[in-house]
Amino acid sequence: MTFYDSFAIVDWSGGNDSGPRPKRDAIWLGLVRAGVEETPRYLRNRLEAEAALTELIEVELSAGRRLMLGFDFPFGYPSGFAEALTGQACPFAIWEWLETRISDSPKANNRFDVAGEVNRMFGGTGPFWGNARPKHDVAGLPRTKAEYHNPFPDRRAVEARAKGSFTCWQLAGAGAVGSQVLMGLPVLERLRRRFPGKVAVWPFEPMVAPVGLVEIWPGLIDPAVKRAEAGGGIRDAHQVRLLARALHRLPMDDMRAMLNIDAPEEGWIMGQGFEDKLTHAAEGLRPPPLRDDCFALPAGVDWTPVDEALDMLRARLHPVVRQTTLPLTDALGRVLAEDVTAIRANPPETNTAVDGYGFAHAALAEGDQVLPLVEGRAAAGAPFVGTVPKGMAVRVLTGAALPEGVDTVILQEDVTLGDDAIAFRSGIKPGANTRQAGEDVHSGDVILSKGRVLTAADLALAAAVGLNNLPVRARLKVAVISTGDELRDPGQAVETGQIFDANRPMLGGLVQQFGYDLVDMGRVPDDRDTLRGTLDQAVEKADVILTSGGASSGDEDHVSALLNEAGAMAEWRIAVKPGRPLALGLWKGTPVFGLPGNPVAAMVCTLIFARPAMGVLAGTKWQEPQGFTLPSAFEKRKKPGRREYLRARVRDEQVEVFKSEGSGRISGLSWAEGLVELPDGEAHITPGTLVRYIPFSSFG
Ligand code: AMP
Ligand code: MG
Q: Among residues 72, 286, 456, 624, which is most buried (max CB within 10 A)?
C-alpha cells in the first residue's frame, strides 16, 4: 500500500545512559519490517542507538527494502538561525556544524558548552536556555527564562500548529527538546555520510533514496497511545510501536499528501494535520493477508462437489478486517471480535420478583401466619436499610434487593393487610418469589462468543452485566462490479441487443442485507484494461470484490483472464446447478468472487458460496444456513452428479417451486422466498417427498 516497505520510529533522548532495565525517557525503537510488527527495542544510550540504526539500515538496504526512519525531534531550527550560525540558509549546514563540535559518551556530553558557545555568538542571552548541571555554570547560557532573550523566533511554523510541542531552544526541564536536537542531529549527520546517496531527509530532499529520514511526533497519535497505556507497559514503547504501525498502514494517497510539504529550512512534523488518520491507523489488530494459494484446487480435480468447495473456503479463509472497540449503542449487527465476559452478575443481588412482603422462612410457625410489619420498605433502586428481625415482615416491590434477614416473599394478593401486620395461609416454600443473585449470569461467565453477529438482545445482555464497550470487527467492505458490453444502467436509453444491469442492484442489496458496507464500482465493458483499472480501484476501497459476468473462459470472459494473469486464479468448477464456473482469485491480495453473469446463477452462487466466505472474511463463525425438511408439492427427476437449487416457497406447509428452471428468469427469483436444495445423487421427487427448504432469511 505504501512506497516504503519498512517503518522504524525512534523516540530519542537527550539525557545520559539509562541503564540496562527498560525505562521511559530512554531511546526506544519501534519497527514494522516488511509488514511484520516487531517488539519495540530499548536502547539505553545514543551510542547503542547509533549502532542499532546503522545495522538496521544495512539490513534493509541489503534486503532491497525501502525504509522510512522517523525521529521525534526537529530536523531544522526556526528560520534565520542556519544562516546566522553558518552563513548558509541550509539545515544541513547546522547538522555539520554540530557534528564537528558535539562530543558524546554514555556518561557525559558537552551539549551545554556548545549551546553556550552559540549563545555567545549572539550576545550571550539566547537562543538557548536551560542548564541541567547544578554546579556548572556556562558563560552566556541562561539557566531560566527570566534572564533569557532570544534573537530568533521561538518556534518553527509547524510548532504553532502542533499543540503541546516544545521549543528547540529549551535544554533542561520537562520537555527539553533542545537537548534532543543537539544530541540527535550529529547522529543523523553521520548516518547520512555513512550511506551516501542512500538516505534522503524530509522535507529538505526529494524522497527518492531507499532510506527516508522524517521528523515525527508521538503527540499526533496521543489518543491511541493513551488507550494502549491504559493496559500497562511503557509509554515510549507504545508510542514507537503505534507510530510505526500507523505509518505502515496509512493508505498510499494519505502518505503522499502527508509528505507533500514545503519547509526547506525549518523542516516540518510529518503527519501534522493527519492526526485522525494516523490515530485510526494505529489502532486495532489487523489480520495478516490471505495466502496466495487460498483458492487453489487439488491437481486433477474436475468437478468439485458443493460440500467440498465449502470446506475449502472454510479452511482457507480468515478474517481480513481489523478489530476495534465500539460503545454498545453502536454495535448492533457488528461481528464480535473476542469472547466477552460478564463483569457483574445478573441479577447482581437477590431480589424480589413480585410486589409483596418479605420475611425469613425459617422463622415461620406451623399453620396460618400473622407477621408484624417493620417500618419502611424496599423498592427497586431504594433498598431497605437495616435488618428485618426474625418473625417480622417488610413491604417489598418488584426488583428490590432483598433486605438483610429476608429470603422469601409472599405475593401481595395472597395476604390480608392489617394496620401493621399481614396474615397469610401456610404452605409457602422457602425462597418463593425471589430471583437469586447470579441465577442468570455469574460475574466472569462468557456471555457472548467471538464471531457472533450482535443482536438487539445481545446488547441487552451485555448492558445488564456491566459492559459498555464491545470488541468488534470493522465492517467488511464489499465492492460490486458488473461486466458486459451489453449492459446499460436502469433508466438509460437502450438499443437492440442491450439489457439492463440487473445484477448490480441485486448484489448490492444482498451485501447490505448481510450487514456489510457496499462499495458500488459501477459496470465495465468487456475490455481488459478498463476492468483492470476498476479492480485496481476496488482493492483500494474494499476488502472483497464481487464481479458478475465474464467468469468462464470464453473470448469475452475478462474476469477469469485477468485473475489468471495475476497468477492467483482458480476456476472453481463446482457440481452445482444453476452456476457456471465460479472464478475465485486474489487481485493484489484482495479476494475476488467472479460470479456468473446470469442473474439466477449469480444469486445462488452468492448465497451458497460467497455469503459464508464473506462471513469468514468479516470475522463471523462459519454460517450454515438453517434449512427445514418439508413435504414437496412438486414432481422432479434429477440425474446424479451435481447438487441443484430451485427457486421455491412454502404454501400450506408444502414446498412449491417456480414454474420454470430457466436461469434467465429473474421473475422467479422475485417470486421465490427461498431455495429448495436437491442432493448430489439421483433423485425422483413426487408430491409428499420430504425435501430441504432454505428460506432466504436463513442466509443472513
Ligand atoms: P457472461 O457470464 O458474461 O457470459 O453472462 C451470462 C449471461 O448473463 C448473459 O446473457 C449476460 O447478458 C447476462 N448478464 C451478465 N451480466 C448481467 C447483469 N449485470 N445483469 C443482467 N444480466 C447479465
Ligand atoms: Mg459477459
A: 72
Burial of 230 (0-12, 13-18, 19+ CB in 10 A): exposed
Counting every residue written for the chain, the total comes to 700
Q: What is the per-residue pLDDT across 409-420, written as a single tens digit (0 to 9) for each?
A: 999 999 999 999
For ligand 1, atom 14, name the residue with the nearest CA. 597
Say yes or no: domain 628-699 is CATH 3.20.20.70: no
Class of domain 351-435: mainly beta
Look at ligand 1, atom 23, and give the residue with the nearest C-alpha. Answer: 597
Neighbours of ion ligand 2 (CB under 5 A): 484, 549-550, 597
- The pTM of the full predicted model, rounded to 2 decimals, is 0.66
Pocket probe for ligand 1: among 481, 485, 487, the residue whose CB has the most ligand atoms within 8 Å is 487
Question: H/E element holding 601?
Answer: helix 599-605
Closest ligand by atom to 523 CA:
1
Average pLDDT over every residue of 537-555: 91
Give alpha helix (H) positions in 440-527.
456-464, 503-513
Residues with CB under 6 A from ligand 1: 482, 484, 486-487, 499, 501-504, 548-551, 596-599
What is the residue extent of each domain of the chain? 1-77+88-99+176-285, 81-87+100-175, 323-345+440-473, 351-435, 477-617, 628-699
Instruction: Using the atom order of ligand 1, give the atom closest to the CA of residue 598.
Output: 8
CB-based contact 424:416 (threshold 8 Å) = yes
Secondary element (H or E) of residue 541: helix 528-541
Extract the C-alpha cell encoding 374. 417493620
Q: Which amino acid, residue 13?
A: S
Per-residue pLDDT tens for 123-149?
A: 889 899 999 888 899 999 999 888 899
399 within 8 A of 380, measured Cβ to Cβ: yes
Average pLDDT, the chain: 93
